[in-house]
Amino acid sequence: VVRRSLLQRYEHQPFISCLAGFYSCRWKRYQRERTEPGKCCCSMVTFCFSLVFLYTWGEGKNDYNNFDWYNYGNLGFWFLWSLVILIVAAVLFAYISLLLVLAMCLLAEGQQLYLHWSHKIGTFLVLGFSISSLFALSILWRDHGKTVRLSFQVTAPYLHIGAIVIMVLLAWPVALHAIRADKKVTQVIIVGPYLAILLFLFLIPLGMYSPCIREMGTLGPKPALIGHRGAPMLAPENTEMSFMKTIEHGGDGLETDVTISYDGVPFLMHDDTLRRTTNIQEVYPNDTGKAASFFSWDALQKLNAGTWFLKNKPFVGMGSLSEADQNQAMNQSIYTLSSFLRLADSHNKLVIFDLYRPPEKHPYRNLWLRKVLDVILNESKIKRHLVLWLHNSVRSFVQSVAPGFQHTMGRKAPIEDLLKHNIVKLNLVYTDMSSEDIRKYAEANITTNFYVVNEPWLYSLAWCSGAHSVTTNAVHLLKDLSQPLFLMAMTPQQYNIMWILTDLTSAFLISLIFAL
Questions:
Q1: Conformational region of residue 141, where left means phi above 0, alpha means psi within -120 to 50, and beta covers everything else
Q2: Judging by DSSP bridges, how do beta strands 425-429 and 406-409 pair with one another?
Q3: Contact, 238 vs 269, CB < 8 A?
Q4: Is the domain of 324 the same as that of 470?
Q5: pLDDT, tens digit, for every residue of 139-193?
Q6: How far apart are CA 369 and CA 23, in angstroms?
Q7: Number of helices and strands in the chain (H, E)
Q8: Which helix (H) or strand (E) holds 67?
Q9: What does DSSP assign to residue 336?
Q10: Position 21 pLDDT exceeds 70
Q11: Is the distance from CB of 213 to CB of 495 less than 8 angstroms?
Q12: Which of 270, 293, 334, 422 could form an S-S bond across to 257 if both were Cys, CB 3.0 to 4.6 Å?
């Protein structure tokens, strides 16, 4: 407008003609800047992938220990890889978020985002890291997807409200940039994806379910806590100290793993070899790869089962160990099944254990179950109702010689089959958690236990779903929860009203912003 006015009034004056040309150049540059939203799209895509990976990895914290032990087995040394990945993901997400905020501010002012070459490289590094990490998770850790889906059952209502708030805040820069665009195509490119995402968020509660949305007074009792190999965050796993820590923190049961020594003594050991949880490299350096069951009990007694815990510092919480606890951990030895059962019986704690059959050429390969039953029934004389019998082979024989055990199945099955075999409890991996199945089994007086549940959000989901108990590494943490996290004390109908009001309010505000 200025250029045209100057040319019409002063077209014969050189200075004014030059000034008009200057305005013409500025106007063309402004047109070019305000109609190029494409350079912000890469930052937006990178932000989305980075957010998805950060959420996915953050919600998988329950299995960080398994991830780190997997790397330990492959690399031969201990390192908290899971925590490093989480920190890197958080830093990269913060970086790309800052770039995106700056881009939105510049676009709101009608200016173009000029990225320095270093930021361009940084953006593509974040994008590459996020995509490659998500791909690796989908291939190498497929169960992780189930964990993320479970997390949505407790976080989805809150994520929905947060996403709606973000879309309202983004309405101003989106509307401003769309209005400034000259071409209809550009306006559609800007506004179309925004409205599509907004519509998706408006309707997503239709396919959302959360057992933590429930009316006050309908929440079931807090799930019982069974210490997974004792309290492995506080003491060396499968040792007397570990089980005592579980008992001290109010655990309701103890879980362990049982194998048989070469001379027929059942003892507690999870791994096939002794390399990870003993000092065998110092005592028997030539036998580090030898199966644990091929050692005699006398040889096993010479090993220390606690120094590895202090040396590797594998768990969060190690720094809180007192000097007395450290001294106690350094003096732990391999624990026998008989001592374990006597300890549980004296404190009236439930016991559940995985039984490992000895390998071929072992003298007790065909007698191992009888040996275990002999220890349970004759040596320890534990109260039979405290034993959750999990091993499925020769179950009918066990029921005949040891009536009173609580027979437990390690997989889902039709209720008719479970009742036929006198099953009273299911011991399931937590990724199989379903409030509908829990309710169905409970109606048949079959309780459910889920393993391994360490994170408060996952324990909260088990609580809201009606689980009877969980096996956990973190008895000392979960015992302090007085109510489930993310609990919404309202009926589903009340939540639907809140959802509709949220959508209507946000739609009104966004429409008002576009009108302004």
A1: beta
A2: parallel
A3: yes
A4: yes
A5: 877 778 889 989 999 999 999 999 999 999 989 888 887 887 778 888 888 889 8
A6: 93
A7: 21, 11
A8: helix 64-75
A9: B
A10: no
A11: yes
A12: 270
Residue 273: φ, ψ to 5°: -115, 175
Alpha-carbon gap, residue 148 to 55, rounded angstroms: 8
* pTM for this model (two decimals): 0.85
CA distance 210 to 200: 18
Mean pLDDT of 269-292: 94
Task: Reply yes or no: is the peptide bond before residue 452 cis, omega within 30 of 0.
Answer: yes
The helix/strand/coil state of 75 is: helix
How far, in Å, CA of 195 to CA of 188, rounded? 10
- Answer yes or no: do 190 and 316 share one domain: no
Q: Mean pLDDT across the stretch 380-402?
A: 93
Of 40-49, 110-119, 293-302, 445-454, the range with the lowest mean pLDDT is 110-119
Instruction: Write out the two tokens for 306.
Output: 């606690």
What is each CA distance from 348 to 140, 183, 383, 479, in whole angstroms?
Answer: 41, 77, 8, 18
Per-residue pLDDT band at 335 (split at 50, 70, 90): very high
Report how many domains make up the chain: 2
Most distant CA pair in the chain, distance? 117
Residue 114 maps to a domain: no
The stretch 194-222 carries a mean pLDDT of 89
Name the DSSP class of 182. Answer: -
260 lies in a domain? Answer: yes
Kindly report, residue by residue over 392-443, the tens digit of the pLDDT. Answer: 888 999 999 999 999 999 999 999 999 999 999 999 999 999 999 999 999 9
Residue 233 structure tokens: 């965050």
Task: Tell whether 510 and 393 lie within a shared domain.
Answer: no
Comparing 55-69, 124-138, 402-416, 439-453, the range with the smallest average pLDDT is 55-69
Candidate ranges 98-107, 207-216, 327-336; pick with highest mean pLDDT: 327-336
Nearest to 181 by CA among 41, 42, 40, 33: 33
Domain around 378:
224-410+464-486
Query: Beta partners for 326?
Result: none
**DSSP per residue, 441-494:** HHHTT-EEEEE---SHHHHHHHHHHT-SEEEES-HHHHTT-SS-TT-EES-HHH
Ranges of beta strands (E only) in 350-403 are: 350-355, 387-389
Asked if the model's pLDDT at residue 251 lies above 50, the reply is yes
Q: Which residue has the tokens 């209809």?
A: 184
- Do 154 and 294 lie in one domain? The reply is no
Q: Are residue 479 and residue 502 in the same domain, yes or no?
A: no
C-alpha closest to that of 177 among 255, 254, 113, 245: 113
pLDDT of residue 18: 56
Which phi-psi region, left, alpha or beta, contains residue 381 (left: φ > 0; alpha: ψ -120 to 50)? left
Please tell me the distance from the alpha carbon of residue 457 to that of residue 485, in angstroms, as a whole number. 6
Residue 205: strand pairing partners: none
Residues 6+ apart with CB under 8 A from 59: 147, 148, 151, 155, 457
- Angle CA(379)–CA(380)–CA(383) in degrees, nearest 5? 130
Among 436, 448, 466, 454, smallest CA distance to 410 is for: 448
